Amino acid sequence: MIKEYQGNDMIVATQIDKFYGNGCHALKAVSAIVHRAEVVVVIGPSGSGKSTFLRTLNQLETISSGSISIDGTDMYDKDTDINKLREEVGMVFQGFNLFPHMSVLENVMLAPLKVSKRNRQEVESHARQLLCKVGLETRIDNYPSQLSGGQMQRVAIARALAMKPNIMLFDEPTSALDPEMVGEVLDVMKGLAEDGMTMVVVTHEMGFAREVADRVLFMEEGQLLVDDTPTTFFDNPPHSRLAEFLSQVL
Amino acid sequence: MEKTSSNLLWHGVLLAVLLSFGYSIVLASQSIEYNWRWERVVPYLVNMEPKSAVAPFDGVAKVSADGLSVVVTSDNGEPDRAYQEFSHLIVGDGDLVFEGDVIVTREDWRMGPIMNGLVVTLKISIVSLFFAVIIGLFVGLARISSNPLLKHLSLLYVEIVRGTPLLVQIFIFYFFIGTVLGLDRFTAGAAALSIFAAAYVAEIIRSGIQSIPAGQMEAARSLGMNYSKAMIHIILPQAFKRTLPPMAGQFINLIKDSSLVSVISITDLTKAGREVVSGTFAPFEVWFTVALLYLVLTGTLSWMVKLLEKRLATSD
Ligand SMILES: Nc1ncnc2c1ncn2[C@@H]1O[C@H](COP(=O)(O)OP(=O)(O)O)[C@@H](O)[C@H]1O
Ligand SMILES: [Mg+2]
Predict the structure, then answer these.
(1) How high is the ipTM of this complex?
(2) Minimal Cα distance from B233: which residue of A?
(3) Of A115, B186, B299, B314, which residue is 20 to 30 A from A67 by alpha carbon distance?
C-alpha cells in the first residue's frame, strides 16, 4: 500500500471497459479523475452504466480492461489487498442493504470491530457520534425493520463512515425513498461534502448536482459523454445528447 | 361472535371424528378377537423387579436397633459386611445366614429393552445430526463456490446420495466401507445416516444462503470484509433463521430414517420392538408403543425448534 501518497488525485480511472458475462458492453473506454475533497455527480439515463462505473471503483465489479487507482494505489496490482482498499472506499446503496439481524448500533459497529479490529469502546463512541451526526441518536437500539426509508439510508451512511473512508460512493441513495424523506438524506450528504469528503454520487437529484457538485458527468450507453462544471453542464450543455436528456427530465 | 361459534362447531366435529376413529380401532380388534394386554409391555420398558443382596459367606446377622442397617459377621473371620439403604429386610436379628441367602432387597428399576433401544436411537440420531450439519454446511458452501472442482464435486455428492435408497447406502457402509475401514456397526450406521442427511442439509443451506439478497454480501464486502467474514457475520446468521423450518423437517426425517439401521443389527428402538414382539405375543401393543416413543422424540425436537424460532424472531 502506498499510504504516503499525498497527490490530489483520489480516483484515477483510465480507459476502463466492462463486459458482463452475458456479453453486455456496459462501460466503453471510460476515463475520469476525481480529486481530493471533490464531489462528482454522475447523471444519465437508466441502463447507461452509472452503477457499473461506480461499482468498479470498489471492485464490486471487476473491469475487463483499463486501470483504476485509488488514492495512489493501483487496484489491479497483484500486491494490492482489495479488502484493505475497500476500507478506504465507503459505499451507499439504493436499497440501503442494512443488516436486518442487527440493531442500528451493531450495524455501524460491525465492520470496525471485525475488519479494523479497533478497540470496542473507541468504536462504540465513534458509532454513537456518527449516528448523532445523521440525527439518529435515539434509534440506536432499533432494528432496521423499525425505521423509515430515510432513517435506514442515514444509518447506511453512518455505517460506511464508521470505517473512516477517504472516499464515499453513492448509488442513487434517494431513489428508493418517499419524496418527503429525500431531503433528510441529501442534507446529510451535503454535510459530508462540506466536511471535505471525496464523493462520487449517482443521482437523479438535479438540484443536488447543481448545488453541491464540483463536476457533473453524463453517461449514455456505457460512454462518458460529458465531464464539466455544474454551471456549464446545466446551463450550457456541451453535448446534444445531454441537452436532449435534460430537456426530458427537467 | 359468529366466527367463534362456528369454530366451536368445527372443534366438536373434530372430537367426533377422533372418537369414531378410536372406536373403529376397538371394533377392528374385536373383529379379530384380539386381547389387549398392555401390561405385558411394561416390563420391556422398565424392569421393576427388586434387587436383592445376598450373603457372601456363612455367618450371623445383626440388625441395628432402629432397623436401618444389618451387619453380617463371618464365621470364618472374614471382614464384616454391612447393608444399608434397603427397602425390605429379609433376615431377623441374630439369624444364622448361609452363603447365598438373601439379606435385604431394594426397590429398583432398570431400563427394559425398548428403553435401551430408545437410547440407541437417540444416540445415533444426535451423532448423525451433528455430523450431518457440519458436513452439510461445507457441502452447501461448496455448492455455491465459484471453484469448479468444489462446485462439481459437491453436486455429484448430493446427486449420488439423493439418488440412491438409504437402505442400500447403509448396506454399502456396513459391508463395504465398514469392512475396509474396520468400522463397528454403530459407527457404520451413524456414518451412513450422516452422509445421507448431510446431502439434504447441504441443499437446505444452499437455498437458504441463496435466498439472502445479493446486496447483503455487497454491503459487507464494500465495508472491507473478506468472503468468510461476510459469510460468518452477515449471510449465515440470516440464512440460519430461514433454514430452521426445513431443517427441522430434515432432522425429524433423520430420527425416523434411523430405524433403518436395525437392518445391520443395531438394537435401536425398531429392532428392540421386533425382539420384544417375539417374546410377548403382544405385537399390537409393542408397535403402538414404539410408534409413540418415536413420536415423543420427533415431537420434542419440533417443539425445541419452534422455541428457537420464536427466540430468533425478535429482530423482525
Ligand atoms: N450483473 C449484470 N449482468 C449483466 N448485465 C448487467 C448486469 N448489471 C448491469 N448490466 C447491464 O449493464 C448495463 C448498465 O447497467 P447499470 O450500470 O446498472 O446502469 P445504470 O445504473 O446507469 O442504470 C445495462 O445494460 C444492464 O442491463
Ligand atoms: Mg443503477
Answers:
(1) 0.93
(2) A110
(3) A115
